[in-house]
Design a protein that fits this description.
It is built from 16 helices and two strands. By secondary structure, the protein is mostly helical. It is 74% helix and 1% strand. GO terms for molecular function: transmembrane transporter activity.
């Protein structure tokens, strides 16, 4: 096992005013899209779509309810519609991301791509206000468009991190972006939970309060995206990727360039090592987050109100956690700080295993710890990876980063579900997730960041 390496920091320089304004605009995109992620994806969409799907499967006033829907001729349980929708969106994203990354590196104005993807997703998210009655299929279509568009926009946004910050500033800048995202998600979620909890106060039914909340997330996303699109246009046009002659031009050029990039990965072994480590430990993080609600409800007996309180607490603390981790990275280096975060994730898992049924105070203490490490590990993973990718091909490599994440995000939930089914309890299933953090940490230690930075500075190597 190799030792953790930390390259000598590059002396920070004072950015010019144009770059500072562009950087502040870039922060706002995390603020914009996180409202959709939190309000729609995390809290409201799946339960509401399930209600609509069940209504379609068993309409009032009819006989012979089968409790299934027909999807492309196949019977589907209403309770599975939302889960299958997210699965399909994840697979579509994984397939499209590399091509979008190749396209983003061929344009001088990435902010235009960012706006195109963001506003497409925001329009679909806003249109969710029309999902009602038995129109479950409309919810599926809109969710597919919104989630895929969000994912594609994130690749472009991640690549823009390189345009708005130098290597010495990147940990802090990435952390501030994540912090802004958690704060934005918290603000709109708090408003929407008030709306959903007391719909009569606003003259709405319970269902309409959910529909309005879903639309508000789309409107928030679309309106605040105006800030980065306008602010980032002040950046000087970036040089496009120096393409190989065989890449050519036209619509198929990004595809040919992507194939060349994949072949060139052998010249950047530290990128591959980091990607492997990230895919493993991030799968553990995402599984803990996604399984926490069912664990809290089924294993610990908490109510929906208690679980929603937990989500709000995590969002609020994650804002501070991202900033704290950014400062720690400035002192100890991003790699060591992420490794420390993985140790804390292990503490979280063991702590959740030990929480007695009904011990809500202990559960909230764990939520505080999750909030501290959640934003920090994700923000620093992004900035650390940005230092390893070859100069000029940032979007392509970030597309691999996002595509790989989505391509393996099913493994943790599969392990959790299988162990829970075999053992008849969620507690041993939670302990099984420790393997993701331990293995991920071991793989991350083997990344030689100093060597990776030197390889990245040489740019894309010719494929020999």
């Amino acid at each position: 096992m190799g030792a953790v390496s930390t390259p000598a920091p590059t002396p920070a320089t004072t950015p010019d005013p144009t770059l500072l304004r562009a950087r502040r605009s870039w922060y706002v995109y995390d603020w914009a899209n996180s409202a959709f992620v939190t309000t729609t994806q995390t809290v409201l969409f799946a339960p509401y779509l399930t209600v609509v799907a069940r209504r379609a499967a068993c309409p009032q006033g009819t006989d012979g309810c089968t409790n299934t829907l027909s999807v492309l001729g196949l019977p589907v349980a209403p309770g599975s519609v939302a889960l299958y929708t997210i699965t399909v969106a994840t697979l579509l994203s994984a397939l499209l991301l590399p091509f979008v990354g190749a396209l983003a590196d061929r344009t001088r104005h990435r902010h235009r791509l960012l706006g195109g993807f963001a506003w497409t997703g925001a329009a679909a998210a806003t249109a969710m206000v029309a999902v009602g009655g038995d129109r479950w299929w409309l919810g599926v279509v809109l969710a597919l468009v919104a989630v895929v568009s969000l994912t594609l926009s994130l690749v472009v946004n991640d690549a823009l991190l390189i345009d708005v910050s130098g290597p010495a500033e990147r940990d802090a800048v990435s952390s501030r972006g994540w912090a802004a995202g958690y704060l934005g998600g918290f603000v709109l979620l708090a408003v929407n939970l008030l709306l959903v909890s007391t719909p009569g106060t606003f003259g709405l039914t319970e269902e309409w309060s959910v529909r309005v909340s879903l639309a508000s997330a789309g409107l928030w996303w679309g309106l605040f995206t105006v800030v980065p699109v306008l602010g980032l246009r002040r950046l000087p046009p970036r040089p496009v990727l120096d393409l190989a002659p065989e890449a050519g031009h036209g619509l198929t050029a990004p595809v040919r360039q992507l194939a060349r990039t994949l072949k060139g990965l052998r010249h950047h072994p530290q990128v591959l090592r980091f990607l492997l480590a990230y895919l493993v430990f991030n799968d553990g993080i995402q599984t803990v987050v996604s399984a926490s609600s069912v664990y809290g409800q089924e294993e610990l007996g908490f109510s929906s109100a208690q679980l929603l309180t937990t989500v709000l607490l995590v969002q609020a603390v994650a804002f501070l956690g991202a900033l704290v981790f950014g400062r720690l990275a400035g002192r100890f280096g991003a790699q060591r700080t992420v490794l420390g975060g993985l140790v804390l994730w292990i503490v979280v898992v063991l702590g959740a295993f030990a929480v007695p049924r009904g011990a809500f105070t202990s559960w909230l203490a764990l939520a505080v710890l999750i909030g501290l490490v959640l934003g920090g590990t994700q923000a620093l993973s992004r900035s650390l990876f940005s230092r390893l990718v070859p100069a000029g091909a940032e979007a392509e490599y970030f597309s691999l980063y996002q595509a790989g994440e989505r391509g393996t995000s099913w493994l943790g939930t599969l392990v959790f579900g299988l162990v829970a089914q075999l053992c008849g309890s969620y507690r041993p299933a939670l302990v099984a997730l420790l393997a993701f953090f331990v293995v991920g940490a071991v793989l991350l230690v083997r990344v030689d960041v100093a060597a990776g930075v030197q390889q990245a500075q040489r740019g894309t190597d010719p494929v020999r």
